[in-house]
Design brief:
Layout lengths: L32 H17 L4 H7 L3 H12 L4 H9 L3 H13 L8 H10 L2 H12 L4 H7 L3 H12 L7 H4 L3 H12 L7 H4 L5 H13 L9 H13 L7
Helix pairs in contact: 1-2, 1-3, 3-4, 3-5, 5-6, 5-7, 7-8, 7-9, 9-11, 11-13, 11-14
Length: 246
């Protein structure tokens, strides 16, 4: 069966830096290097025994990263004292990881309301998309206005969460040729005339879209299972390599 040519993930253009903090509505609290070092050393000391050390918890919970790791790997359940630090520091990475790996997988709870409020305040579309896709595993209306600010994550949300067209986000999605192309192929499943002018300006995307048009005319607009996921992940890694390693 014919399918669109894809590039190996390793050949995707080098990723730019992480989503700029200036685009976030909430400000992360920067941790003093000495506090981070002390928390890291205390956590390492705990891992040598593999069990709780109440005498070191005060130091560990001062770092959101190590508070999360301590809850996940040592307590293996919710840690209210650590949650406060994770929330107060407003770093969406640790909020998401705590929600997914501790609240959902260890505590067997569906959602973390306090974490959701913090994620929405931080306003990073990448982590809000991941929370919807991997924690809620369904639509998150409260986060949609933020997700659709970014073409790639709006497309991913439509493809992997909504599993249908997202009309409100289409004007944003079509701003990025690669997102528009993937949206046409894997969400609409047909040509997308409104976005063709944008795609035509991209020398890499436009030939792929033309190939897709030819496949549709030949009645071969169906792709092998997994092809969509490969392209989605490759494109998302280009923007945010750090968030696809949790």
């Amino acid at each position: 069966m014919k399918r669109l040519p894809t590039r190996p993930i390793s050949e995707v253009a080098p990723p730019p830096r992480r989503f700029p903090l200036t685009k976030l509505r909430g400000e992360r609290v920067e941790l003093d290097p000495s506090i981070e070092r002390d928390a890291r050393n205390a956590y390492y000391e705990v891992t040598l025994r593999g069990k709780r050390r109440p005498d070191l918890e005060e130091v560990i919970r001062k770092s959101p990263e190590h508070a999360y790791l301590y809850a996940q790997n040592i307590i293996k359940d919710k840690w209210p004292d650590g949650e406060k630090t994770i929330l107060d520091h407003m770093d969406p990475e640790w909020i998401f990881k705590y929600a997914k790996n501790v609240i959902k997988h260890l505590s067997r709870l569906d959602r973390w309301p306090e974490g959701e409020k913090a994620l929405l305040t931080a306003g990073d579309p990448s982590w809000i998309y991941k929370y919807a896709a991997e924690v809620i595993e369904g639509e998150w209306p409260e986060g949609e206005s933020i997700i659709r600010q970014h073409p790639q994550f709006a497309y991913l949300y439509a493809a992997n969460v909504r599993h249908k067209r997202w009309p409100q986000a289409e004007p944003i999605i079509m701003r990025r040729p690669s997102a528009a192309y993937h949206y046409a192929v894997y969400v609409i499943g047909d040509t997308w005339p409104e976005a063709e002018g944008i795609m035509a300006n991209d020398p890499f995307v436009w030939p792929k879209y033309q190939n897709f048009q030819q496949l549709l005319r030949a009645g071969e607009g169906v792709f092998e299972p997994g092809a969509a996921e490969v392209l989605q992940v490759a494109e998302a890694i280009t923007d945010h390599p750090d968030i696809f390693t949790s």
